[in-house]
């Protein structure tokens, strides 16, 4: 007897849902696969939306597939304008309505894959309904029409990745970026976020941190400080929440704070129902529950769910979140946990900062990078890394993400045999250098103090840069003893000192020298450059 074909319904037709549906088809030619999507588009590139705002990417290029192309290539029954409203787990049906006509539908399933995504948080601010979110193609169309036709003043609420990307892509207008928290880009620690903030300032984006929006009117945005900003267009980028209501209503396990709970195979509490993408909770590098609404995870999870559904041994374990964005001339990103998150988990990480060049300094065009590694000095376990800089930032971030996911120890970064020729890197690549520094710390050769510990360390502060560099700016109270004269000055120093230079390298040489001459010396992680960025992060940016 012929078994009846497997009926699979996928709810949500963007990254996670379409990855699942197409993988499923590749593994099973006979399954009846239906994709329900409430919006008018499936398989669109939502990470590309801000790039259409700036005109870099054409609108049609964002639409990767249509229901017709998915029918032709994958024999998928893709129904746009179809909103799933209820799952009856006992009857194994999904009911919903056609959003254009209101017509109801009921469809039976053998397996269900939920990929309903996340939705923009709308803070309870009077008038906020005027603000445009940026999650979907219709959102983009509305926002772009407003930006193209309204007056020049754009106010963006929220300086996470979406807010910063929207602000950057709207450049050329009079853009103000309002952030309730103390810094832009929350995945970064403050001293790296400060570098992004400075770039936004340089490019004419007005950034206000600690900004509490109290009211949005037809023409203005009002702040708690009393300021009133002209606002022809308001962009809402105050974060997203998992769209888990359908799952909740179906009695599936959902975290109290939001997010569908799944096992390693991405099955919900009902094994016939899988869930993937921005709607679920996954686990971070410390194996803690994490909400990671990023495209990489949605794509990976879609494939894993389809594989497992088809009886293949697939699972999705703890993963570091890796994110990156282009901010004018800078690239900024992070992988794994930042220092703040590691401390919040009750751990005491060791932190190092470096500021290498993107490639050999003698080869034209080298650009500056700023790297931060957060790790455990006792075991070498890497918790996370952050990178801000010019060319080659993405490459270093990806190597570090790979190392983190593969369990490479911090000191073993020195051992990675990375590609090198002068236009691309250095014989000691910036990632190798992080490994060398980590090795020195783990071996007890160097003890780095952090930018926020320097002034309260009780140590004599010694600036080992040149007199010129010192004159241009130094730590309060620091004495200037250039590295090359340090040997003869050593007998006159306090017994405990903190030595620093511009980025950390001369400071390291100085500390090793002094320690051998009987002076107990610590270094300043990342040198004056990190200290300056740290100081900048302490100063709230007022509205313009
Ligand atoms: P987010 O949570 O990263 O940032 C939202 C920001 O809005 C926070 O900094 C928050 O403090 C601020 N905020 C909240 N309420 C506010 C208020 N009333 N006034 C002013 N500020 C307020 O969220 P997002 O930027 O909307 O992005 C959503 C998710 O998508 C994130 O996880 C993000 O990492 C991801 N994403 C990633 C990329 C990328 O990797 N390039 C791009 C876009 C989005």
Plain-language structure description:
It is a single chain. With 544 residues, the protein is an alpha/beta fold. It is 27% helix and 23% strand. It has 15 helices and 29 strands. It has a five-stranded parallel β-sheet with strand order 3-2-1-7-17. A five-stranded antiparallel β-sheet has the order 20-21-24-23-22, with helices on both faces. A five-stranded parallel β-sheet has the order 25-29-28-26-27. It is globular and about 85 Å long. The mean pLDDT is 95. Nicotinamide-adenine-dinucleotide (NAD) binds at residues 47, 123, 157-163, 165, 178-181, 186, 211, 213, 237-240, 293-294, 323-325.
Write the layout of secondary structure elements.
Blueprint: E1 7-11, H1 15-27, E2 32-36, H2 49-53, H3 67-74, E3 77-79, E4 82-88, E5 93-98, E6 104-108, E7 111-114, E8 118-120, H4 137-149, E9 153-157, H5 161-169, E10 174-178, H6 190-202, E11 206-208, E12 213-216, E13 220-223, E14 228-230, E15 233-236, E16 240-242, H7 245-249, E17 273-275, E18 282-283, E19 289-290, H8 295-309, E20 322-327, E21 330-336, H9 339-344, E22 350-354, E23 369-375, E24 382-389, H10 393-406, H11 430-442, E25 448-449, E26 460-463, H12 467-472, E27 479-480, H13 486-489, E28 496-500, H14 505-516, E29 520-524, H15 527-538
Parallel strand pairs: 1-2, 1-7, 2-3, 7-17, 9-10, 9-15, 10-11, 25-29, 26-27, 26-28, 28-29
Antiparallel strand pairs: 4-5, 5-6, 8-16, 12-13, 13-14, 18-19, 20-21, 21-24, 22-23, 23-24
The structure holds nicotinamide-adenine-dinucleotide.
